[in-house]
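Database export, one record per block. Field names are fixed; values are copied verbatim from the stored entry.
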Amino acid sequence: MNPNLTAFSIFPRTPIVKIIRIVLAVWALCEIHSCSGNKILSPANEPTALVKAEVDSLFRQFDHYSINKPDSAILFAAPMEEKLIALGQREKLINLYTLLSELYRYKKNDDSKALYYMVNALDVVGRLPDLFYDNPHFYVNIGNLLFRYEMYAEAIKTYTEASRIAIITENPYAIVLSFNNIALCHQSQNNCDSARHYFLLAESYIADKFDMMQGQHYIYLSSLAMQCGIMDSIPDYGSKTEAVLKHIEANIKQKPDENSRKNLTAIDVDRLACNLNLGAYYLKKHVLDKSLGHLKIALDLAKKSNNHYHIAHIYMKLAELNNVDNAYGVAVKYADSAVKHISLITDLKTLIMQIRLLASLYGGLHKQAQAAVYQKRANELSDSLKAINVTDEVTRGKIKLTQARLDLVIQQNDMSQKLHIATITSQKQLIWLMVAVLIVIVAALAGLSYFYYKLKQTQRRLALRTIEIINNEKTECQVLKTATKHTPTDHQICELKQFFIDEKPHLNNNLNLNQLAERLKTNQTYLSQIINQHYGVNFNEFVNSERIKEACLIIQQQNSKTQVTIDQLFSMVGFSSKSAFYTAFQKYTGLTPAAYVKLHQKRI
C-alpha cells in the first residue's frame, strides 16, 4: 500500500449538462430557422384561418363562374380584387390577375385585356422585391401570348422560366406543360429535332403513364411526325393515345366527381385531335377507308363541341378524300358544308387560310368559277388583315414592353432565389458545424466516462486493499516477531507498529516526532530515517495514515446502535480540522469518507 497514491475527483456533471443543453438548443434553433428558410415565403404575413377560408371561398366562386358564365366571372372579379387588396393577400391578387388573363385570352379572345391583367400581375410582383412568385402558370400564360404573336424566342425564354419555377416548386404538371410549349415553339419554326427533344423531356416528368398528359404527349408526337415527314410512327401513337383515353374514361365513369364533365370534354378534344391526325395520315397513304373512318369520328366529336374551325377543316379533308376517290359530287357537297362553317370562324388569319384551302379544293374539283370567288374573297380579307397586322404590331410592341418587365421580374426572382439558397447553405453549414461540435463533445464525454469508470474501479480496489491491510497488520507484526532471522531495523518497525496499535499515540492531535522518539526511547533522527526508508513518507504523512487507518476501523466496527458521524470522526482520530481529515482520507483510501462508508455497507 502506497500512501502517496492520490485519487483524482471526477469533473462536475452540472456544467456538462448545461453545455449539452446549450448545444442542443442552438442546434434546434438553427434547424427551425433552416426549415422555415426552405419554404418560399412572401413578405406578407401568414393569413389567419378565417382569412384563408374567405379567400378560398372567393376563388371557388370565381372558378365556378369562369367555367359556366365567363361574363359573371368578370363582374365578380372587381369586388374580389378590392377584397384581396383589403386583406393584404398580394400573392392571391397575382393569382386573380393570372386567372383573368387566361379568361380573356382563351374564352373572350381578347388579347388586349389578357395583356392588361398580365401587366397588373407583373406590377404586383415588381413591388415585392422579396417575393419569389411560385405560380409557373403565370409565366406560361405570358409565353402563350408571345407564341400567339409568333415571338418564339421570347416565348421559349418565358416557358423556360416557368419550367425552372415548376421544378423548384415540384409541380410536375407545370413542368410537362412548359416543356411541351417549348417543343411547340420549335415545331412552329420547323426545328424537328429540338421539338422532339423537348417533347421527350416533358414525357420524363409524367409519372402516371395513363394520365391525360400522356395522351396529349402522343398526340403532340403524332403531329410532329406528320409535319416532319416521319409518318410511320403515327398509327402507333394513335393506338397508344386511344388506350390512355379509354383507361381514363373508364375511371371517370367508375368514380364520377365534380370534375367529371370537364375531364370527359378534355378526352373528346384529345380523341378528336388523335382521329384527325390518323385520318390525315391514312389519306396521305391512300388508305381511304381507314381515313374515312377516323375523319367521321373526328367530325362527330367536332360537332359535339361546336368547334367551327375543326368542323370546316374536317369537311375539307373529307372533300379531299372523295376527290382522290374520284367521287367529285360528294366532294363538292363536303366542300359546300365547309363553306358554312368557315364563315363562322372569328379569327381572320385562320379564316383566310381556310378560304385559300377551299379555293384550292374547288380548283381540284374543276370548279374554277367557285375557286376564283373564294380566291378573290381571300385576297379581300388579306387587305383587311394588313390593317389588323398594324394593330397586331402595336400589340406586339406592348407585349415586348411586358416582356422587358417580365425579364426584370425573372432577374428579381433569380436574385431572390440565389439569396434564399445562400441563406439555406449557410444555415446548413452552421448545423453541420454544430453537429461536429456535438460529436466532439459526445466523444469527449464518452472518453471521460470511461476514464471515470476506470478510476472508480481503481478507487474501489484501493479501498478494499486498505481494509485488507488494516486487518492484516497485527498478523504481519506477529509473523515478524516470531521470525528466526530479523534485522535491528525490522525489530524497530515491528515495535513502531505495535506501539501505534496498543498505545494509539496518533489520536493526540499534538503528536510530534520528538514525543514519539522519547516514548519509543530512540533517537528522533533514527526514527525519522526508519519511517522514510520503510514507508516512503515523512513523519506527518505517516501519522496521518495511522489516523486514517483508525478512522477506517471505527467505520468498520460501528453498527446501527453506534453510529458515528463524519463531523465527529475527524476529531476522534486526531485531526484538528475537517478539511485536513478529508484530504488525508482521500489520499490514503482514494475515496471520500462518505463513499468509504457506502462501500463498507455494501461489503456487509
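Remark 1: The chain has a mean pLDDT of 78.
Remark 2: The chain is about 80% helix and 0% strand.
End of record.
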